[in-house]
TrEMBL record:
Coiled coil: none annotated. PANTHER family: BARREL METAL-DEPENDENT HYDROLASE, PUTATIVE (AFU_ORTHOLOGUE AFUA_1G16240)-RELATED. It comes from the Bacteria. Residues 44-304 form the Amidohydrolase-related domain. This is Amidohydrolase family protein. The lineage of its organism: Bacteria, Pseudomonadati, Pseudomonadota, Gammaproteobacteria, Pseudomonadales.
């Protein structure tokens, strides 16, 4: 039986009435309302993390959120109307990709993965990850992980698997990294809209560098985690939205939407994911652009079945 959005609402309403529980309550997410914006069928959340208190964090880990499992995330999927996801190994676990790989196995083909790998990883290990659904490796210059010195060598190896490199770094580092990133022998994904420092946004050197990278047609960035850099704050994130809107005008074919659930950098009050999703109606007012950003770009990059 295929559940429609309306049928989900009906079931949730019945559960609420009978059991007196919030219809759309989701762990590590505020609010219980559905988003006003309906996403295209087959939409992809391009950035989530999984955590488990039973898995020890790497020594010196900065972010150590409580348990947030795939079953918890499925509730957010249902609330937002999404069908697919990209599970990214967080900095918390160093080179331990076990939670991400378990999530891929549990997803029944609805997920792809991004791993954090050591320079000593073998070709066999990479091939096994590829069969499991991994499509990229992550370099985190903000919270640690694989060293930037290994970037070109590992990029060459994963490029043979048709993978990409995913980079998270402070926005003010992008101009200095630009020439190195342009030489990579594989596609590149830049996390969280380049984490451009605010105020500054579209007037910053980081924005200029990010724009040039996107213009190559080999680089993508994610519309995710506006709370990481916004100074204007929730619920509108106006400064982040200004950057997002400008990039939508320039390269909607190189943007992807991500929730960043369970929002590991937000250690107190979590954001309302439905309200953040609804901002896409402002940032990308054309339905054709939203189809690219919510679905088509990620389906192509992560090689989801069409």
């Amino acid at each position: 039986m295929q559940f429609t959005r309306r049928r989900f609402i009906e079931i949730a309403g019945t559960l609420t009435a009978c059991c007196q529980i919030p219809a759309w309550a989701v762990p590590w997410s505020q609010g219980e309302e559905l988003p006003s914006l309906e996403v295209p069928t087959g939409s992809v959340d391009s950035h989530i993390h999984l955590y488990d208190d039973q898995v020890p964090p790497v020594a010196g880990a900065t972010l150590t959120p409580p348990t947030a499992l795939l079953a918890d995330y499925r509730l957010l999927q249902r609330r937002l109307g999404l069908q697919r996801m990209v599970i990214v190994t967080p900095s918390t676990y160093g080179f331990d990709n076990s939670l991400m790989l378990e999530g891929l196995a549990e997803s029944n083909g609805s997920a792809r993965g991004v791993a954090v790998v050591p320079p000593t990883i073998t070709d066999e290990e990479l091939s096994n990850m590829d069969r499991a659904g991994v499509r990229g490796i992550r370099f985190n210059l903000s919270f640690g992980g694989t060293k930037i010195e290994e970037l070109e060598r590992l990029a060459s190896r994963v490029g043979e698997l048709d993978w990409h490199v995913q980079l998270v770094s402070p926005g003010d580092q992008l101009p200095g990294l630009e020439s190195k990133l342009l030489k990579l022998p594989c596609p590149l994904v830049i996390d969280h809209l380049g984490q451009l420092a605010q105020p500054g946004g579209v007037a910053s050197e980081g924005f200029v560098a990010l724009s040039r990278l996107l213009a190559t047609g080999r680089v993508w960035t994610k519309l995710s985690a506006p709370y990481n850099t916004s100074k204007s704050g929730a619920p509108e994130y106006l400064d982040f939205g200004q950057v997002a809107s400008e990039l939508v005008k320039r390269r909607p074919d190189r943007l992807m939407w991500g929730s960043d659930w369970p929002h590991p950098t937000m250690k107190s009050k979590k954001p309302d994911d439905a309200k953040i999703l609804d901002l896409m109606a402002i940032w990308a007012p054309k339905e054709s652009d939203r189809r690219l950003i919510f679905r088509d770009n990620a389906v192509k990059l992560y090689r989801f079945d069409t």
